[in-house]
Amino acid sequence: MPSAAMWLDGLRSPPGGKRFNFIVALRAALGSALRPRTARRVARAIPEVSGRTPHVTLVGAGPGDPDLLTVAAARAIAQAEVILYDHLVGPGILALAQPEAELICVGKRSGQHSHSQEAINALIAAEARSGRRTVRLKGGDPMIFGRAGEEIEHLERVGISVSVIPGITAALGCASSAGLSLTKRGVSRAVTFVTAHAREGDATEPDWARLADPKGTLAIYMGREAARRVGRGLTAGGLSPDTPVLAVENGCRPDERHHRTTLGAMAERGVAAGDGPTLLLIGWALDERAADAGDALGASGHVGQGLGHD
Predict the structure, then answer these.
(1) d(CA 262, CA 270)
(2) DSSP 8-state class, residue 279
(3) How many CB atoms lie within 10 A of CB 161?
(4) Do strands 161-165 and 191-195 pair parallel, antiparallel, or not at all (unpaired)?
(5) Residue 256 contacts residue 248 (beta carbons within 8 Å)
(6) Rounded to whole angstroms, how far apart are CA atoms 155 and 134?
(7) Residue 162: CB partners within 8 Å, gap ≥ 6?
(8) Nearest to 225 by CA among 283, 264, 270
(9) Distance CA 217, CA 169 (A)
(10) Less crowded by CB within 10 Å, the N or C end of the chain?
């Protein structure tokens, strides 16, 4: 890391020379100091095949728009020789893979589990042992409701190393696409991520009274089919029926749709979403643009169109 003395010496411009730009020099100094460390971290994500132990890279594909991938994620996808991907990963992201890469869909949809988690774990391990660069590609962030923990535990138990490249989770992508902040000073001081999808056979309900915080925002993942149950639980837990709700269907994709309602109406009728993956955003932080967003939805059906998303 360059010393402060070096930067201070640079402040003394030579006679007739250009004026010293401290910001440019600072950026260059920090870049040269940090770049090698970043490069090593990314290189470890997809190690060299020759002479290496089996390795899997868990990659977050973000909420759907390829432009929202991290640089590390795009690099890992381009380097992979085999990619095991979820249903929520769109074709625009898979198109970044090299033509020779093998693409294997192992995704699960509500009520349509083409592969059990145990079968997915075994398949990932088998591909890693083949000696190919293996990427497990998950929608959003792999560590948020993505069962990444189960896959990591299995792979490490059978002697396969794992690295993780995070992605933008659906709640953040959908809020940005709608032009809404999940927090607002004096209105919402916390954000809670909740899954509406329980493990098969688990009838345990969330602690609705704890979640019904009028000074917080809830992001309910996989919430379309459970919308009535969520609305009834939160109103019974004490949250006002007038609390705003924004259901985002196919967030950050070309066919993104926004459906606005209130908690009380959702408890009675659910949300008017189609069959795409739907995230529910609930809380008073969503209230500021409710009227404008409703007008925009009536005109175009897509609030986020003016915000630079596909």
Answers:
(1) 10
(2) E
(3) 16
(4) unpaired
(5) yes
(6) 12
(7) 55, 56, 57, 58, 151, 152, 155, 156
(8) 270
(9) 15
(10) N
pLDDT category at 44 given cuts 50, 70, 90 is very low
CB neighbours of 31 closer than 8 A, spacing ≥ 6? Answer: none
Biggest CA–CA distance in the chain, Å, is: 78
> 92: burial class by Cβ within 10 Å (0-12, 13-18, 19+)?
middle
Report angle CA 118, 74, 220 to the nearest 5 degrees. Answer: 55
CA-nearest of 101, 107, 72, 69 to 87 is 107
Which residue carries 């007739």 as its tokens?
A: 16
Catalytic residue among 18, 65, 108, 184: 108
Sort 31 into a burial class: Cβ within 10 Å, 0-12 / 13-18 / 19+: exposed
Amino acid identity of 211?
L
Q: From the candidates 9, 18, 67, 86, which is the catalytic residue? A: 86
86 is a catalytic site residue: yes
User: Quick check: helix, strand or coil at residue 238?
Assistant: coil
pLDDT band at 182 (very low <50, low <70, confident <90, very high): very high
The answer to whether the beta carbons of residues 76 and 165 sit under 8 Å apart is yes
Q: Which residues contact 47 (CB under 8 A, 6 or more apart)?
A: 55
HEC per residue, 40-108: HHHHHHCCCCCCCCCEEEEEECECCCHHHCCHHHHHHHHHCCEEEECCCCCHHHHCCCCCCCEEEECCE
Pair 165, 70: CB distance under 8 Å:
yes
pLDDT, tens digit (0-9, with 9 covering 90-100), for 248-268: 999 999 999 999 999 999 999
Residue 163 three-state SS: strand
Residue with tokens 């959702």: 266
The model carries a pTM of 0.75
